[in-house]
Amino acid sequence: MIPERCKVEQFFGEWDARVEHVACASDVDGLSMRELLQLADPETMALWEGLDLGYTDTLGHPLLREAITEQYARMTAAEITVCGGGAAEAIFLLANVLLEPGDHALVVWPAFESLFRIAPALGATATPIELDAENGWRLDLDAVRQALRPNTRALFVNFPHNPTGALPTRHEFEQLLELAREAGITVVSDEVYRGLEHDPDAMLPAACDVDEQAVSIGVMSKAYGLAGLRVGWLATRNKRITDAARVLKDYTTVCAAAPAEILALIALRAGPRLIERSRRIILSNLPIGESFFTEHSDAFEWAAPKAGPMAFPRLRLPVPVDEFVADLAREKGVLFLPDTIFDMTDNRLRLGLGRSSLPTALERVDDYLASRAVPTGS
Ligand SMILES: Cc1ncc(COP(=O)(O)O)c(C=O)c1O
């Protein structure tokens, strides 16, 4: 069965080309080809220049898989599967591997759509576990425990979290993994924003390092600013999951694009510099966003994110957020993402902190609010 249409992709399809400032992106400014190639070492430059554009290794280039293991404490290259369709492909493979008709999954909520929209198409059900907005978007472990059913097979989590910027403590995360282990369910940990914690000491361990049944998902899109490569991966010590995902992958992308693999290898070898670049962009935008939204506290309720390139303030104006977003986009060419895309009705909007143009975009929002194109809420 075909899953329900992906609202976020539809939304960007409708608006992306019509606005000047996408102020709600989940990635950071993309790197140019020139910038990336300047980071190549002699070995990767030789690989790039002599690249054979035939099919690649279905599991991923051996050097790329080796470079990916650097993100983990315990993983070997044999336990990494490269996905040529990004993290989106990894999620698709894992949902298909873990869920059958009649099964049940838990999904931390709100969620990136494929984490919950694929389950129903497989004949499974997914129960959302809501993060607590009143409590710094905290994950309630009791809620997870109470939502477990005899047919629960998987728990899909995503920290640092899209769209709230939530990040549990290390202790909370380990307790969550322990709870899943005791319940005999597989944790799929979407870690695509890992490395973008605002306090680097708050970085969580990868789920696949802590628990040999859990799966971690990574990608070049977010922390490295290379979404166009479409290189993602899944990492797990659970051989049954690895084997099944690889069988299925022969029916999706088969192998990643040869140029994308070498470019990803170049980036991973320069990993700390690229992550630092992304963090610099986010951390310079964060105080600007914070002062903008607190200055306009009549119009917005701000909650500081802990990690990642997004925040999720609430619109206080007596206007449905969809209407506010569409009017702002039309009037000022600035795009926010309404929470209705996440099937929410809390009048929130997603702010992207990863684009250097954010300050200019916020100046336009300032003009928009000043022009009283919308009621002031007074
Ligand atoms: C939480 C989460 N997981 C996975 C993805 C998919 O990443 P990609 O499109 O690079 O495959 C995204 C993209 O926004 C995301 O936010």
CATH topology of the largest domain: Aspartate Aminotransferase, domain 2
User: How many whole angstroms does the radius of gyration measure?
Assistant: 21 Å
Given helix and strand content, the structural type is: alpha/beta
Shape category: globular
Please give the CATH architecture of the largest domain: 3-Layer(aba) Sandwich
Overall number of strands: 14
- Major β-sheet profile: 7 strands, mixed
* Proportion of residues in helical segments: 25-40%
Percent of residues in β-strands: 5-15%
SSE string, helices as H and strands as E: HEHHHEHEHEHEHEHEEHHHEEEHEEEH
Number of domains: 2
- Cα end-to-end separation: 48 Å
What ions, cofactors and ligands are bound? Answer: pyridoxal-5'-phosphate
- Which regions have little confidence, pLDDT < 50, spanning 5+ residues? none
User: How many separate helices?
Assistant: 14
CATH class of the largest domain equals Alpha Beta
Outline the structure in words.
- There is one protein chain.
- This protein has 378 residues and is of the alpha/beta class.
- The protein has two domains: 7-32 and 273-370, Aspartate Aminotransferase, domain 1, CATH 3.90.1150.10; 51-270, 3-Layer(aba) Sandwich (Aspartate Aminotransferase, domain 2).
- The chain contains 14 helices and 14 strands.
- It has a seven-stranded mixed beta sheet with strand order 2-8-7-6-5-3-4, sandwiched between helices.
- Strand 5 (152-158), helix 8 (170-183) and strand 6 (186-190) form a beta-alpha-beta unit.
- Helix 4 packs parallel to helix 11 (258-269) and helix 5 packs across helix 10 (239-249).
- It is globular.
- Pyridoxal-5'-phosphate (PLP) binds next to helix 5.
